[in-house]
TrEMBL record:
Family: Belongs to the cytochrome P450 family.
Descriptive protein name: Cytochrome P450 86B1
Cofactor(s) needed for function: heme
Family matches, as PANTHER family: CYTOCHROME P450
UniProt-listed InterPro entries: Cyt_P450, Cyt_P450_E_grp-IV, Cyt_P450_sf
Residues where heme binds: 198
Species, as recorded: Triticum urartu
Amino acid sequence: MITKKINRGCIGNEEEQESADILSSYINDPDYADVELLHAMLLAFMLAGKDTIDVTLLWTFYKLTQNPKIVSIIRGELSPIALHKIDTGMGAMVIFDPEETKSMVYLRAVLYETLRLYPPAPFERKTMAADNIMPSGHEVHAGETILISLHSMGRMEDIWGKDCRDYNPHRWLLEGSNKPRYEPSHKFLSFNSGPWICPGKEIVVIQMRTIVATVVWNFDLELVKGQSIEPKLSCTLQMKNGLIVKLKKREI
């Protein structure tokens, strides 16, 4: 059963979430009384995350090959679970279950930091339903379209500080602790914001967290030299030339 996670406009504070069944919530919504519309919406939930997950994982592994200290911290967070699996004779290859990675706060921070610098959907488009005045003082009118560059927002010093271009997962943690730092969702728009927050957010995070945990624990990653790593101009922030890495089985 697909679960809908409702986040009340914050990032990094899971205590403010509620759960509801996606199918039931849409069936009971009069706006989705049309069966074909409901069918299309459910297919979107099943398929829409595919490309965005692929893109985010690609950029995450790329950044991890450049940051061995971050890899060490992730492994330290995974160590109690992984070593227990090894001690109980579950095989040389350690596979992490989604429930086991739930408490991995730093690993979640790594994914959020990737999404900040490399948002899979680099632009957000909004069409004005009525005349309004933006917080900046700019007047906007019904029917006008506003384009928001999430890619640029993630690199703005006014929003993220002087180290805005650095890959630093610790910015998502409270200073001196391993607890998540509150960040308003309108500052970090990879999952949209407010009532439009992505209902599949937690499903996506769980999938990526489980994949990264399994790969990082079991393998050493080495970036093949001579590659040209650059984004491709497309609907999703793909790598123009792909990514080639060497995987070497770790000796635990």
